[in-house]
Structure formats: C-alpha cells, structure tokens
Specification:
The chain has about 525 residues and is α+β, with helices and mostly antiparallel strands. It is built from 17 helices and 17 strands. It has a single domain, classed as Deoxyribonuclease I, Chain A, CATH 3.60.10. Strands 1, 4, 5, 6, 7, 9, 16 and 17 form an 8-stranded mixed sheet that branches. A 5-stranded mixed sheet has the order 8-10-11-12-15, with no helix packed on it.
Length: about 525
C-alpha cells in the first residue's frame, strides 16, 4: 500500500511539473531578466559635478564622454499597416539585381515618407502624440482655430504627417523637469509602435545651476536628437560636430549691458524670451541605417547645427559632417535644424560687435567706398543691412553680393550642392514644378517647399511683425542610381498653428522619396 501511494505521489509531481513547463517555458523567465542598456550613464551626483566650471573627478568626464558618443536604440516588433493599399514594386529597370529585390516586394506605397520636426524640447508631447494616436480628435478639437478655407488643407497635412514612415526629431528631452521627467521620444514611439534611436546632444544643467527643486531619482538632464522608424533600425552612430560655442562657460558668465538690452528688446518687440542655458556637450548628428522590407538599407541622419555662432562655423560643422558620411553608399536622407538664419544669436557685447566689424571685409570696403561723404559709411551699412534682409527673407540660399549685400550663409548651400560622395552621387538640389508640393520650381523645390520668394518658413518669433520668419529646417537627399529621389517636400504650418500658441516654435516638414 505504501509503495502504491509513493508511486501515485511521484506521478502527481511529474504531471504538475510537465504541465507547468508547458504553460510557462523556461525561456520566458530568461527573457524577463535580460538587462537593458541604460539610457543615461550619469548619476545625479555626476550631474552636480558637471554643473561646476572645473571637474577634478576624471571618471565623471569618462562617463560624460560615453553619454555623448553612444546612441540608444529600441527595436520593437515591426508595425504592420493594413490601412493602405499595397503596391507591387518591380526590380530596377535594366534587369539590375539588388540585394533582396530579386522578386516583387510588397510596400504600402511606392515611396517612403520622411518627416522632420524640432519639437521645442517636447513641451507639448501629449499634443504631438494625439496627432498620431487620435488624428480625428485632434482635427475636430482645433479646426475652428483656422479659417474655413484652411480646414481642408489642415486635414491633408494631418494625414500626410501621420503616415510618415521615418521621423527625425531635434530638441528631444529625457528626464527633464520642464517636460515632467518624461522620455518624450519613447512615449511618441509607443504611440506609433515604432522603433527609435536617441543621441544626447547636451546634458542640461539649468535646474541644478539655478537651484531649482528637482526629482533626483528621475532627473537625467538629457536633450538631443532622435529617429523613429516603422522599419528596423540597424547600425547607428553619433557624430560630434566641431565646437562653435562654449555653452557652459559662456552661459555662466555675466552678460554685458548690450546683451541685456538685446534680450529686453527681443522680449518687448518680438515676445522672444532668451534665457541662459548652462549645458555640457555640443551639437551632433545621429546616423541610423534603416532596413526596409526588401532588405535594402537607407541611411537617415538627424542633425542639429549651432545657432550661437557665425555662418562660417556652421559651414565648418557641415563640412565635418559630410566628410564623415562621404563613404556611405546607401541612399541618405539628411534632415535637421541647420539654423541657417544668416546671423549669430550668441550673447553680444561692445567688444564683440566692434571686433565683428573690424574683421568683416565687407564692412571695411563700405567704409572706404563712402569715406568721402560725411555720414555715408554708417548710412550705407544700415541700407545694406535692410536690403540684405529683403534679399534673404526666408531664403538663406540668396546670392552673395560682396560689399553691398553679402550673404555668408550662401557658402553653406554651395558646399552641399557641390559635395560628391565616394560612389559618385550628390544631393538632389532639383526644383521641378511637377515634383514640388505646390507647383513651384527652383533650387531644392523637390525636397523643400518654396514660395514665390524663397522658401516656406519653418521658424518664426512668437510675434514676427512681418519680418522675423526663417527657413531653418531642411531635407537634403542623396539618391541612388535614379531611385530614392525626393518629391513633394512640404512645410506643415497648419498642424502647428491650429493649436493655440503653436505646438512648437518650429514647423514640421515632410518629403517623399521614390522606391
């Protein structure tokens, strides 16, 4: 009897173990304890040390360097989109075989749509999430803030933006008090069910320097660039750009009376608030290879150039960036806020303004040319500056006319246009009216929306007074053997301006590239 009971008990135990293993495999438990790469390598104690002008602890600098040079990548399950009619794409003309394209491949549409947006730190991240998560709700909530004649265009912009396959972002906050310590890119990626990668541009230290109350557990101080993608993100890297402005040292320095007046005037006249931003880090570009369903790779670059410098240093940054991209043979989408405002927004002083004029050959030439007439040199400078603004209004690509109407930003676009990659390809600067979004033609009209005069602005002051409009955000597309050609470049102003006081101080932009 005892023997029978023992056998029965053993059978019950075996049955229970087998049943449990079938219900919950061991593999599941292994995956749960898999440790994720940290999004920040810096502790709060590190941030306190970084807020000082000098750092004696060298290990903090090692962790800072790691934070600024490593990207963070999250790949989720590929999103399946059945809302659009699938279109068969045949292999390239001429029978040329490409990797993964030996047979027709199904794509939702015969092109990719790429979006870019400087989201102003993500201060309105919940509103941006609503655009993607509840487009109809967003439309009906805010359409009455626009003219009736604009509402159909508003609806089209929403549909175009929400159907973006890849999204580049600038000014993304992670663990900042001003955005409630949110990981703004992660929240947006979850709404879309997209993959994402993030690169730290700056360690923001304002809250520590100015003794704000912070949640030390959640404060990370990360601010940077991001790329979201419907498709898997493969290789990524961060390209640190040449320094054009010493953020921590300069922002902690006492401002001059001239700078105080400039800030006061900007606030009074344009409602533009300029504040100090002590930071560690500098401008960078995030590079990501995105794998399409046919196994082809497209390289997306999200870049942010310096605004607190002269155009010459932005040119230096873009030269460095392109030299680091030169040997990439994939099609490339270079997107970002390039701060092409033709000016320098760094703090000013009497010494700086004097030095700027002494070193400016155009200024010196005007003084010589008009020296014989009393008051003419000063008047010529005022007139030249005024007319220059008219020439360059929303168009930093305007002609550079030395002495009288110089445009220092022109060199930036000339370099981009003439740059050649190692495979012989160049950026598409074409402006075919049939491939532009509004029938306009001219330089870059295929990839960036133009107006009759210049480009549709992507940034404006809160109170622009008819002059403070700028085209700062751009797409530059490197095609590949007559594929991945840009068309229908748009600036989506209605999305931004339907929301009271705007979602961001920058407008989102989109471009399509052929497959």
């Amino acid at each position: 009897m005892k023997k029978l009971l023992f056998i029965t008990l053993c059978l019950i135990i075996i049955f229970f173990v087998v049943f449990t293993l079938k219900k919950e495999p061991i593999v599941k438990h292994i995956s749960i304890i898999k440790k994720e790469k940290p999004i920040s390598y810096l502790s709060h104690r590190d941030l306190l040390k970084l807020s000082k002008r000098t750092i004696s602890d060298k290990s903090v600098l090692v962790r800072l360097n790691k934070q600024l040079t490593k990207s963070y990548v999250v790949n989720k399950k590929q999103r399946i989109d059945n809302t659009e009619k699938k279109i068969k794409l045949n292999p390239p003309a001429g029978g040329e075989a490409r990797q993964g394209r030996q047979s027709p491949i199904l794509f939702p549409k015969p092109y990719l749509r790429i979006a870019h947006w400087n989201i102003q730190r993500g201060l309105n991240i919940n509103i941006i999430k609503q655009i993607f998560g509840d487009m109809d709700g967003f439309y009906y909530s805010y359409k009455n803030n626009l003219k009736e004649t604009q509402q159909e265009g508003f609806k089209k912009e929403l549909k175009d933006f929400a159907s973006s396959d890849i999204i580049s972002l600038n000014e993304v906050d992670i663990g900042m008090p001003r955005t409630n310590y949110k990981n703004t890119v992660s929240e947006l990626a979850k709404t879309l069910n997209y993959n994402y990668t993030f690169a730290t541009e700056f360690i923001e230290l304002s809250s520590i320097v100015y003794m704000s109350n912070v949640d030390t557990k959640h404060y990370k101080g990360l601010h940077g660039n991001a790329i979201l993608s419907k498709y898997p993100i493969k290789n990524t890297k961060v390209i640190r750009l040449p320094e054009c402005y010493k953020w921590l040292e300069t922002e902690l320095s006492k401002q001059s009376p001239l700078e105080y007046g400039r800030r006061l005037g900007a606030n009074k006249v344009f409602k533009m608030q300029i504040t100090n931003e002590p930071r560690r880090g500098g401008r960078c570009a995030l590079v990501a290879d995105v794998e399409l369903p046919n196994k082809e790779i497209i390289t997306v670059v999200s870049a942010h150039l310096e605004d607190r410098c002269y155009p010459s240093c932005r040119l230096k940054q873009v030269k460095y960036l392109l030299e680091n991209l030169k040997y990439i043979k994939n099609p490339i989408i270079l997107a970002g806020d390039f701060n092409t405002n033709t000016t320098d927004s760094a703090p000013t002083s009497f010494k700086k303004e004097f030095g700027k004029r002494i070193k400016d050959p155009n200024f010196i030439a005007r003084q010589v040319a008009f020296a014989a007439v009393s008051g003419a040199p000063i008047a010529s400078g005022i007139i030249a500056g005024s007319i220059n603004k008219i020439f360059q209004f929303k168009d930093p690509t305007a002609l550079n006319i030395p002495v009288f109407f110089p445009n220092q930003e022109r060199k930036f676009f000339k370099y981009l246009k003439e740059f050649q990659f190692s495979d012989g390809e160049s950026f598409d600067f074409n402006g075919d009216s049939k491939k532009s979004s509004n029938g306009k033609m001219g330089l870059l009209a295929n990839s960036n929306e133009r107006q009759l005069k210049g480009f549709e602005s992507t940034f404006r002051f809160a109170k622009p007074l008819g002059i403070a409009y700028f085209k700062l955000d751009w797409f530059f597309v490197k095609p590949q053997r007559n594929r991945f050609l840009p068309f229908n470049g748009q600036t989506l102003q209605l999305i931004n301006h339907a929301y009271p006081e705007r979602i961001s101080d920058h407008e989102p932009i989109t471009v399509n590239v052929t497959l």
